[in-house]
Amino acid sequence: MAHVLDPDRTHALFGRSLLTTHDWGAADLDALLAVAAELERLDRAGVHTDLLRDELAYAMFFDNSTRTKSAWAGAAARLGMQPVIVDGSSTQVSHGETAEETGAMLGMNAHAMGVRHDLILGEGNSFMRDVLRGITEYLHASGDQRVVPVVNLQCDIDHPTQALADLLWLREHFGGDPASALVGKRITMSWAYSPSYAKPLSVPQGVVSLLTRFGAHVTLAHPEGYDLLPEPMAWAAEGAAESGGSFRVVHDMDEAFTGADAVYPKSWGPLALMTERVAANKVGDGAAMKDIEQRALANNARHIDWICDERRMALTREALYLHCLPADIGAEVSPGVMDRFRVAVAQEANKKVYVIMAMLAAAKVPHLADRLSALN
Ligand code: CP
Fold it and tell me: What region holds the Aspartate/ornithine carbamoyltransferase Asp/Orn-binding domain (predicted)?
């Protein structure tokens, strides 16, 4: 059955960029996810949604990616756009071109811009805001009427297309009215051990700052020293207060799992070392960067018991296991738990293509609700 879209609410998203979910009101996020759900339904029904034919969807990645790159390409292709994805380090940014200049140069040809820039605290989100400023100022100065939204494909603060995909997946899992599906649900975002690399903070920050806004009781669990940045923590507390949900922090994984309806155990780096990395990166000190990484992994290794296994899952209320992937199997999660949820986490990942489609379509297609309704 078609998802009913509110024409005015949907049209209110026209021209928007997505740099953090915090920039968006809860009603706007609901409208965006309604579009995503409808685009998923149309896609699964084999209906063509090529509303943006012959347009260029350009994305720059300053870090590795499997899922988000393919979701960007898949979303663009389903909308009739031409996706192009470049390695950010191959651009002239590495030769000192500013983010504003880069935005202007790429935006003058493109019709949408995606950026992943997640490795260094304090850099990624501000880079994206500068890119957006560069595009906007160029378009304005040259009298170009095109709408070129910027989509954050993961930064140092947020991973909004991931968190929104997670929210869409949780709403589907819990069922009922999407707007109230999370009300009263106990959702745990937990640190988990990883030996592979010091992972960005943006996924847990994005998850806790988004899910608290929809009435969930969110628990953040991590060992001492694995705090998140103050700003998204404040957003989570504010979101919980406004939505009637709650937000707490514990340092015990068992306590966090007990009674949970959904658990999201994944690793991130220790805050002090992630902060130390900023200065080393600024002066291009590769040896210091390597040393910090080794110390981060040694720190992680003090907490190898922070694993999502069958014993911990048994503490929950038959919780749904979530992970943004890739997961360190045998470290973040036991092979048995991962096997049990292998399809579920793939379905969770698949939601991102529809979130990105919704973002591009809502930002660029005037009166989108009517256009989608006409496709039925
Ligand atoms: N979860 C996620 O963003 O996956 P990728 O890093 O593979 O894009």
Answer: 207-362
